Amino acid sequence: MDISFFLIQALNGVQYGFLLFLVASGLTLIFGIMGVINLAHGSFYMIGAYLAYWLTGLTGSLLLAILLGLPLAVLTGLAIERFAISHLYTRDHLYQVLLTYGLILIFNEMQSILWGNDLYGVAIPEMLTGSIRLTETQSYPVYRLFVSLVCILVALGMLLTIQKTRLGMMIRAGASNREMTQILGLNIKQLYAIVFGAGAGLAAFAGMMAAPIEAVYPGMGEGILITSFVVVVIGGIGSIKGAFFGAMLIGLADTFGSVLVPDYSGIVIYALMALVLLWRPQGLFGQRV
Amino acid sequence: MTDPTMRDPILSIKGLTKRFGALAAVDDVFLDFASGETHAIIGPNGAGKTTLINLLSGDLPPTTGTIHLLDRDVTALAPDRKSQLGIGRTYQKTNIFPDETCFQNCWLAAQSRLPSSMRFFRRAHRRADIRAATERALALCNLDARADVIAGHLSYGEQRQLEIGMTLATDPKILLLDEPLAGMSAEESVRTMALLTSLAENLTLILIEHDMDMVFAFAQTITVMVNGQVLETGTPAQIRASAAVRDAYLGHGPTEQGATP
Amino acid sequence: MSKIKRTDHRRRRFIQGAVAGAAITAFAPSRFAIGGTAKVKVGILLPYSGTYAFLGEKITAAMKFAIAQAGGKLGGRDIEFVQLDSEAKPPKATENTNKLITGENVDFLVGPVHSGVAMAMAKIAREENVITIVPNAGANQLTGPLCAPNIFRTSFSNWQPSFPSGKVVYDDGHRNVVTMAWNYGAGKQALGGFSQGFEDAGGKIVKQILTPFPKVEFQAYLTEIAALKPDAVFVFYAGGGAIKFVKDYAASGLKDKIPLYSSGFLTEGTLKAQGAAAEGIKTTLHYSETLDNPANRIFRPAFEKATGKSADVFAVQGYDTGLLLLQAMNAVKGDTGAQKEIITAMENAVIDSPRGKWTFSAAHNPIQDFYLRQVVDGQNKVLGIAHKALSDLAKGCRMG
Amino acid sequence: MTNLRPTRLYLLIALCIVIAVGLFPLFGEKFHILLATRIFILAIFAMSLNLLIGFTGLISFGHAAFFGAAGYILAFVAPEDGAAAFWWSAPLSIGGAALLAAGIGWMSIRTSGVYFIMITLAFAQMLYFFFNDSPYFGGSDGAFIYFKPSLAIGSFDPVNLDNRVHFYYLAAILVLVVWAFLAMLLRSPFGQVIKGLRANEPRMRALGYPTQRYKLVSFIIAGGLAGLAGYLNAAQSGYISPAHLGWQESGSVMMMVILGGMGSLHGPILGAFTFVLLHDILRDLSQHWLLLMGGVIVAIVLFLPNGLAGLFTRKRIPQRDDDHD
User: Fold this and answer.
1) In-domain check, residue A248
2) pTM score, whole prediction
3) DSSP state of D316
4) Based on the structure, what is the number of domains in chain A?
5) CATH architecture for segment(s) C159-285
């Protein structure tokens, strides 16, 4: 094994990390600001992928599918927030776990009713089908690099929103102290709706971007859900920065774990999470509660 | 100790510092608390008073410095260990078990004095000694008539009394009181003052309070803190006379309530 | 007895149970008395929700289709299907199987898809002695150490479809091969089959890679393969993982340099989603949609027309399950009490399947042809027979 | 917290239930006896989790780890050609589960709130992958327990677990035993402390209780009881697989606890009963039963905040306005 092998593996890890970040950032926002554990977050990822499949079929273009599908996903998120989640802000985490678990079942069945249980794929847009040669045997698909680029742009966008805008100010206040937000006279209801809608949108967007390199299949949201939770917890709940570093860490750990301890690579990310929590019980960038 | 009137310190802190990031909430504080005295800590908001109490009670670990209880280094001990050693505290924000009766609240506190509550089979309420300690604490905080009332249904003043009663049930040597009069009506304040006065006979009291009338009437020693540092320590008369205190904190009216710079 | 036509569920079950009970002690006449009155109860335990739902739906549809084509009766008796969603969850398998066997008193049990569920189910089926037909789950153990007179499998053992690939890969001139599969029973057993076939022929497994199930992130492994530069790669993936793997393999540029082989599940029900990435992949399986035989020529259009579902290997396995039930029940003229005769009929059955004629081995696993297939224009084109009449090893089976 | 003083009505209901449970095998169908046994086992499992969630305030999302581990221990120690003796295999499974809980608990209780939820999940997932990936325990296909444990003492063999009615009564009695054990535990000094922990942990610490130690002991007891349930489950079905330790199983038992009512002694029993029956009925009702199940869960959360047990007690759990994690 040479240096280029490790470099390519690092690239794999980072690239996987970017995708994780896209899902986890929404989760951490909802977690940190609203104090809601949203198990149904993975469902939005799945909804995104199915919307991408369905709308790409209708319009023939992934871009159009995303433009049409994203508002649909956000609206679904807003409806869920309004009719279910909003009743649980003052209640114990457990009820949120239970309710959002119920939502997973509902979403899964809706998917089955609307799109059936067959497996689907989405074609990579024509412009992005090429690949770049890395070694004699391996090349890297342009679309994957494109996804990474989009993830970086989204991350930057979130950073700017949070640092520079009034909404970002509210989010920061909300993340550090929920009561303070209320004292400052901010409209907490509106803030929560925006955050949940945005979180759902981010997850769905991740699902749409991933659809061409993933398979679109029933139950696809659950796998990424647990991994995203691991990312959020490692990074520290409510911290976008934490979600970013957590995602990178998990992406790299998972990639190198696969190579270095192949027989038990399923354990790696959970062991990493346990270690981080034993070292810093509030995650890498979390605030002490 | 240079002051001959000073009794032996029961609690002594040296170079105590607590930093939150760049901010030093408590900055290199040296203080001695004499056994049996009533010692008030005053200062503007953000002076580091509550942080100091939290350091003494073990709720926060100090960044540097030491805390000694008599000869024993208790700097890094957790709250439960400090409590077991006789340092009890009350909270600024009422901190009781609102779903339980007053009796049960004090009972839980009194039970903590058992060598261990890892007893799985006997009914808890059968212990006569704990019952006696509970009743004593309820009597001390004037809630013996309200023993069976759910704590959440008490008036605010009564809840504060219960808060003190719970801590008393743990039989402390030193009582840390974080704004015991905050939010009380005049009548409740009077009652609580009477309670504290009776306690001061047997206990070392360390309290934070914004009510200057109360502080100057009640405390034997006053420490003024500003920006995490001790500005002055002395008798009420010394503090009143201190030019430094007047300039930095008390400003124009020495009895101004909740003075904020 | 023959006048009893109660619709009352419990009452009928009671009588039926009583009759079946009597059947054990009494002679033939009393057994035949029930024929033509009560329905034959077929319990189906298959996944209808979650990742495996499409398998469950397809197998069920094809089995019902086979029976409907033959007039909708088993041995002259009407059928009642009792379907249960297995959710592909092993912890629920015991309760589900009990529900069908002791709760519903089914005459036949059909299922499951998931090997873990199959293990729990087989245990009860053995104890309760109900004739059980496995239409998919491939765990080698089912027709190995767990084999039983009353357990039949119409699909394959995990070892079976990949074993012929070994020789195929060797004959294509490859000597050093990397194998890769999900780290679970089916994956390991499939790789075991391939390794045996390949090493017996004289090839060498450079590395066996097991990836966590059901994770579909393969990038790290692809880079490893690229670094190892084997002559060929053999994998076992199915469903969503198969789609993802084939796409990733092509996108990383490996496909043009290192040929990809697999057992046929890689390209079953997944070709449309895989698109061009699957072109050229060679697989071995006991069926192909392009198989040219009379049964298949009739089956495919009829099935697709009747159910609207595409006819793939899973549909064929379900269809054959239906055919097997028909043959056995016709042989005993609908007498479900004649268990011994039914078993004998099944053991001797020759199934004229769309996959080609096949029979049961002594361990009750199909002896069947395995075809070498290659993906051409989005279809699994048959290149020839990779292994004729291949029987499972049936290691550990102490029956027959 | 819970009002344990029995009223006359309460006693009457309890009596009726005991009689019904006692007589059920006489007229119940074979399958329903099996189903009821399974409900008892899950009730014990749910009661064990309720000790953590409902009484200690520790939300464990990895409780199935102990349930499954106990089953694996039984599978591991049971001989292939005969029955393992209940009298040593059960304590071994329970003890093993408790030991595992001691290890996982010791590390997990350093965290709190959501982090605790997640770290318990992480440990359970690690065990899941351990049993799934390791070549020694049957891998993903799971392992069998070929014979049901034997309760014979010498030649005295009154309870034969192969007989489903015997198994039924054993499970029913164990539900009662666990219930009584927990009732006693909660009235003991230890019980008072853990209930205090749930209500307000920092205050308990300030009162001088070494809270970590109490949480750990509670975690170990709950792990052991989950082990008992896991042992019974493995003995009944004769099968154990990695999926028994999966997060979805941890989720289901959590559902049962919340459904029945947290912090109520009998709530989890009610929850297990309802959850299993609901699952069974809804699945028969429609092909889209997941939709119904999801809908029922959502409705219960929104409209029955105190769980089913809350229907029978008038006392309302006060809403918390502070958000302590």
Assistant:
1) no
2) 0.90
3) P
4) 1
5) 3-Layer(aba) Sandwich (3.40)
